[in-house]
Amino acid sequence: MAKEMKDLQKQWHSMMETIHSNPHVVAFMNSRLGRYLDNHPFVTLSLLVFMAVSAVPVAFFLIFAISTTIIACLGMVIIEGFVVSLGGVTLLCVLGGLGLVSLAVSGLLSVSYLALRTMLSYWSDSNGLSKKEAANGISLPPNSSPALDKSATNKSE
């Protein structure tokens, strides 16, 4: 086991040498931020852990955003067709409902008209007027109303 640990330690040191010899890493470590992170290992570790943990959610979000954009571009025709179809069905339902309401209102008005006409016809027939007399302009038959007789009796007095 000691030999395996020494091999692992050698691999670790060679990897660290490769990283520290990279010119980009050397330039970063010579910068102000690199020196600060080198002097504060807890901040460096916290930043490293945060970047490692947040990589997966950020990747999922980017995949979601890109796939949504692609689907929106490609599926716009389908979505637009669905929305237009839904609007057409809604319009058809509204117009059908308005047609039924207009039939109900016109039926109600027709029934009301017929009922009113029948009541007026019955009322005028109950006064004793015939259609022929009403057409000739005779409004009341003679001796039909006691109110008219009062005027006649007033003249005789």
From TrEMBL:
Disordered: annotated segments: 134-157
Bilayer topology annotation: Multi-pass membrane protein
Keywords from the named record: Endoplasmic reticulum, Lipid droplet, Membrane, Transmembrane, Transmembrane helix
Claim: Isomerase is one of the keywords in the record: no
Domain of life per record: Eukaryota
Keyword Transmembrane helix included in the entry's annotation: yes
GO cellular component: endoplasmic reticulum membrane; lipid droplet
InterPro entries referenced in this protein's UniProt entry, alphabetically: LDAF1 (IPR029709)
A Pfam family: Promethin
Annotated localization: Endoplasmic reticulum membrane; Lipid droplet
Chief location category: endoplasmic reticulum
Residue ranges crossing the lipid bilayer per the database entry: 42-64, 71-92, 98-116
Composition bias, Polar residues: 141-157
Family: Belongs to the LDAF1 family.
Cited PANTHER family: LIPID DROPLET ASSEMBLY FACTOR 1, PROMETHIN
Listed name of the protein: Lipid droplet assembly factor 1 isoform X1
Lineage per the UniProt record: Eukaryota, Metazoa, Chordata, Craniata, Vertebrata
